[in-house]
Prior knowledge:
The mean pLDDT is 93. The protein has a five-stranded mixed β-sheet with strand order 8-9-11-12-13. The chain has helices at residues 95-98, 112-121, 138-149, 165-173, 187-194, 199-211; strands at 5-6, 10-12, 18-20, 28-29, 40-43, 46-49, 54-55, 57-62, 76-81, 108-109, 126-129, 154-159, 177-180. Strand 12 (154-159), helix 4 (165-173) and strand 13 form a beta-alpha-beta unit. It is globular and about 50 Å long. The chain is 26% helix and 23% strand. By secondary structure, the chain is α/β, with parallel strands linked by helices. The site of iron/sulfur cluster has 12 residues, from loops.
Amino acid sequence: MLAAAPTKYWHRLEDGRVQCDVCPRACKLREGQRGLCFVRAREGDAVVLTTYGRSSGFCVDPIEKKPLNHFLPGSSVLSFGTAGCNLACRFCQNWDISKSREIDTLADAASPAEIASAAERLGCASVAFTYNDPVVFLEYAIDVAAACRARGIKAVAVTAGYVCPEPRAELFAHMDAANVDLKGFTERFYADTCAGHLRPVQETLGCLRHESR
Ligand code: SF4
């Protein structure tokens, strides 16, 4: 197993806790605590990513399954995910991955270079961060995307878009395509069914529409 990776989107609070700044949930952690996503945790005076380099599974899919209909149509994509999620949707179809508390779920170790190499070997034109949300493992997703780009392989994010502005800009700068799942159309729905807020998702959609290439 690979070690937990350092992260940069967090800051110390006056009361001794450390706040994660990756998503609007803004988890405030004491030593040894994990955020709601379960995969970002406080170690010492910092927040680390505990799932860097570990995957919950791989699969070769048609790109239309992501679903993307106007991006490399007819091509294969190497899908993979880790574990954990920063929303808590009651209808989640991947709850065994997104809410996993079992380290066994993450049995496969895979470095960014190994994933890029596997995609090339399997004839995949792209790699998709899917099954669970790349927002919670963004450092790993970014390194995989960079390794893929070096081999001419594209990167696809399948995400709920529940992310703060700064990490959002960094994550999507490394992506070639994205599918943002809009779970509902009201703040009430997000609060009652997803334990989140609609507004940050709308902001992500607006940024992707107006600010991405
Ligand atoms: S990414 Fe995880 S730890 Fe960070 S604020 Fe969101 S749920 Fe909390």
